[in-house]
Amino acid sequence: MHTHELSLPVDGSAMPSFLARPDGDEPRGAVIVLQEIFGVNAEVRRIAELFASAGYVALAINYYHRTHPTLNEPYTNEGLQKGFAAAGQVSRATLRADVGAAIAYLGEQPFVDARKIVTCGFCFGGSTAFVTATLPGLAGAISFYGGSIAGSFPNGEPEGLADTENIRVPMLLLFGAKDDYIPADAIARIEKTLTDHGKPHDVVTYPNVGHAFFRESSAALNEVEVGDAWKRVRDFLTTKI
After folding, report:
1. For residue 19, what are the domain limits?
2. Is the pLDDT of residue 31 over 90?
3. CATH code at position 190
4. pLDDT tens digits along 169-181
């Protein structure tokens, strides 16, 4: 596996990014990893390396680069508040610009199959995966427990569902039924809205887990759900793109 840091130019700013990819230069599918609200931290890098270990090129981008380029907060209440403050400076327009830059970069790499680029986001990144599923150049989008899909964004913009009509790609959305941030009626509304608009999707809700169940610090307690979610992610990558 190869890993390295790089920066991508976006709107006159340098977006720090972390690339992980398997050995060899044959073209492979690629995953744009979209961070939790806490920044591009060790967990985000772990996820990127997990995808690389499964045979995909993974690019984790820092969409706080305009205002909080070095944000890396712990999983505490204080860290959460700082993360929300940073996320409040992010808009749909900047998210789409950043993901668009990542798509363009990956599409130019000889070790990437440009027809097979997907997003995978967690928490705020899960919401980002939803609203950037409107972009050209993607083949799919995976969202883990995105709280702003059926709720307003931290900056006050409308919920992600407002963009459903413009979604271009199949989606896999995973939730925990015990998530304090995403109630059951919100998950039901997400599924209904996608169905009503005829958007290809799979919505999976695990009854015994809450928010951030896939995070490494929680994974030991949620071994069954994590294993099933990872299998569904890999099946999505191999069958939908």
Report:
1. 2-239
2. yes
3. 3.40.50.1820
4. 999 999 999 999 9
